[in-house]
Design brief:
Layout: E1 15-19, E2 28-32, H1 35-43, E3 50-55, H2 62-68, H3 73-82, H4 85-88, E4 93-96, H5 106-113, E5 116-119, H6 127-132, H7 139-142, H8 148-152, H9 155-160, H10 163-177, E6 179-180, E7 183-184, H11 186-213, H12 223-244, H13 252-272, H14 282-309
Parallel strand pairs: 2-3, 4-5
Antiparallel strand pairs: 1-3, 6-7
Helix pairs in contact: 3-5, 10-11, 11-12, 11-13, 12-13, 13-14
Length: 313
């Protein structure tokens, strides 16, 4: 799941599940049907007798599903009625993850079902302590931390999700690299195309890990701008290194084209992280996309044109 392989096909069936040997007095925990979310919650409930009400979020985690509307009041009420929850438990309390709050209106749930919504802790690891405290959270349970490991663990998925596009871009660069003023040469694919693709790949891998790792210290508020900064750094360093060791880029146009492609791809990496981090809101993401996507397109096209023109200069 962390690498993004078949991520869209990893979900569990919505409905009511039991953990341990729950009774009619046992707590009811609400979650999404994304398998990693479901399994993470289960892993922190060993030794606890509880019910888990899984909502149909189309395989999306709680946080993202709440923003998209699939983890919401309507779906929660629907699943409660579908599972006849009122006849399973004798109390009128359900526990919703705090990050699911944007999608669930507690007063509306109570009006329609009679159940009181309690917003639990942010992380599943705090559930046991939360239940032990009588369904009361501490300030630490409400605080969203985003340390180094939580950021870099996102890198593999951001990396693999663009594999096919990188393959197509690499194929284009290799084919075009064979052109020159005198015609077409297969030797230039090995001598010019492969170094360019290698540089692009190195920067691509570097950006996928450096952007999340250095996120708090990168300049700019928009994540795409932070990505542009990493792209400029990596592109500048690697193209300078290639120039110093005389790798055959033919001319400045070729090097400039690869550099622009690196900047565009790095900016896109940054933009992709908007749905995985607590740095933005829904309106902020929309604003960032509206501003930065046209910039990325221009930079990317400019890189392609420069690289192609460089074959004939």
């Amino acid at each position: 799941m962390r690498c993004g392989f078949r991520r869209d096909h990893s979900s569990v069936k919505s409905g009511l599940y039991s953990i341990g040997s729950p009774s009619e007095q046992s707590p009811v925990l609400v979650t999404a049907n994304y398998k990693m979310t479901f399994d993470t919650l289960r892993s922190h409930l060993k030794g606890v007798d509880a019910w888990i009400l899984v909502l149909e979020t189309r395989g999306v985690n709680v946080w993202c599903a709440a923003g998209k509307g699939t983890f919401g009041t309507e779906e929660l009420v629907r699943q409660m009625e579908r599972c006849n929850l009122a006849s399973v438990v004798s109390h009128k309390n359900i526990i919703v993850p705090q990050l699911g709050g944007p999608g669930v209106a507690a007063h509306e749930v109570k009006r329609q079902t009679g159940f009181q919504v309690h917003y639990g802790p942010i992380r599943a690891k705090d559930i046991r302590q939360y239940l032990h405290n009588g369904m009361k959270t501490t300030p630490e349970m409400r605080r969203f931390e985003f340390p180094f490991w939580d950021r870099v663990v996102l890198s593999p998925m951001e990396f693999t999700i663009m594999l096919k596009w990188f393959f197509l871009l690499s194929l284009f660069l290799l084919l075009v690299s064979g052109f020159h003023q005198a015609g077409y040469s297969l030797e230039r694919i090995l001598g010019v195309g492969l170094p360019a693709v290698g540089i692009l790949f190195g920067c691509w891998v570097g950006a996928a890990f450096l952007i999340p790792a250095l996120l708090p210290w990168l300049p700019g508020r928009m994540l795409a701008v932070k990505g542009f900064g990493v792209g400029l750094l990596l592109g500048g360093l690697l193209t300078l290194g290639c120039w110093l060791v005389s790798l055959p880029f033919d001319n400045g146009a070729g090097m400039g084209g690869v550099g622009l492609l690196i900047v565009a791809l790095s900016g896109y990496f940054g933009l992709m992280l908007t749905g995985s981090m607590p740095y933005t809101s829904l309106s902020g993401v929309k604003k960032e996309m509206r501003i930065t996507i046209p910039v990325m397109i221009v930079i990317f096209i400019a890189g392609i044109v420069l690289w192609s023109v460089g074959r004939f200069v």
